Amino acid sequence: MKNKISDLNIQNLNSKKRIFSAIQPSGSVTLGNYLGSLKNWQEMQENYDCIFAIADLHTLTIRQDPKLFNENILKTYTLFMACGINPEKSLFFIQSHVAAHSQLAWILNCYAFVGELSRMTQFKDKSKKYSENINAGLFTYPCLMAADILLYDTNFVPIGKDQKQHVEMTRDIAQRFNNLYGKTFVLPESIIPEIGSKIMSLKNPDKKMSKSDLNPESYIAILDEPKIIINKIQHAVTDSNSEIKYHKGELTGINNLITIYSCLTNKTLFEIEKEFEGKGYGHFKKIVSEIIISELEPIQKRFKDFNKNYDLIKSYYNKNSEAASLIAQEVLARVYEKIGLLAI
């Protein structure tokens, strides 16, 4: 007998355009993650059929402490719910709980070329960063990502600018397969926000904001206390100027703070410049701190509430993984038929 949440989600995934997106489980969500992805995901739930996942299999390309990894998966799922992802409105599951992701990834490995995989920027970057562990999973990572997207007949993939190459490769693999066997996969398109797709480090605006940064002053975590947020924003780099002015095409600290403020208030860059005309960096940073704290306070409260109810969280990810499996198996069966594998 199917559960109510599975039934509800599958019935909802019919008429609207479909979105798929996933984030790896670090156990900590930064303000950059929230503004670049989660805040947009929350809003998209109203207008699209949304499918979201904790991409735990992707994380295995880097060696993990098993106990901490397990805790991080659960904590990240809970944090995403606190950030507004509603598992009764959207499908929100854990990637490793849906076997079709690994099954389709292997098939897509056979339709991706070594040359195109070796040109992926992420593979080059991580090969340098983790030179002692350049594993095959790191190399074929884009095939698993392609499987994630293609399994759900995805129309749109909301991403940051640094992920565009992966969606383009997904389209290339899907088109290659379609050319060989007839229309099988939907070709997904990227959605890249004009503002906020890439929030930068508070200490080094040349780098993306990341929890893995060795300097904790470089990022704001969703669960940071107000006094910590105030301190980090106060000590954030700006530039040599004193005006609250956005310098288009440049990676400056003041651009980054203006972007954060714009994402949280929905004000345009022009409106922000007018609002703070004649004001100094100190005043601007105070206001930015206040708006961040105001945004994160209800999220932190919801996280504390959810965190007390493990059974509820477990019921959501189990039921949603079951619902996702039913959809994914339909697409996988279509692929099996096209290439001649026996039906499951």
Structure description:
This protein is mainly alpha-helical. It has two domains: 4-197 and 310-339, Rossmann fold, CATH 3.40.50.620; 216-303, Tyrosyl-Transfer RNA Synthetase, CATH 1.10.240.10. The protein has 14 helices and five strands. It has a three-stranded parallel sheet with strand order 1-2-3. Strands 4-5 form a two-stranded parallel sheet. It is globular. The model is unreliable at 1-13 (pLDDT under 50).
| Unreliable runs | 1-13
CATH superfamily of the largest domain: HUPs
How would you describe the oligomerization state of the chains in this entry?
A: single chain
| Level-1 CATH class name of the largest domain | Alpha Beta
- The number of domains is 2
CATH fold group of the largest domain: Rossmann fold
Strand order of the largest sheet: 1-2-3
Separation, N- and C-terminal Cα atoms:
20 Å
Largest sheet: 3 strands, parallel
Radius of gyration (CA) equals 21 Å
The shape is: globular
Series of H and E elements = HEHEHHEHHHHEHEHHHHH
CATH architecture descriptor text of the largest domain: 3-Layer(aba) Sandwich
Question: Which range best describes the helical content: under 10%, 10-25%, 25-40%, 40-55%, 55-70% or over 70%?
Answer: 40-55%
Question: What's the structural blueprint in terms of helices and strands?
Answer:
Layout: H1 4-12, E1 18-23, H2 31-44, E2 49-54, H3 56-59, H4 66-82, E3 91-94, H5 100-109, H6 114-118, H7 121-129, H8 136-150, E4 156-158, H9 164-181, E5 189-191, H10 226-234, H11 253-265, H12 269-275, H13 281-307, H14 310-339
Parallel strand pairs: 1-2, 2-3, 4-5
Helix pairs in contact: 1-14, 4-13, 5-8, 5-14, 8-9, 10-13, 11-13
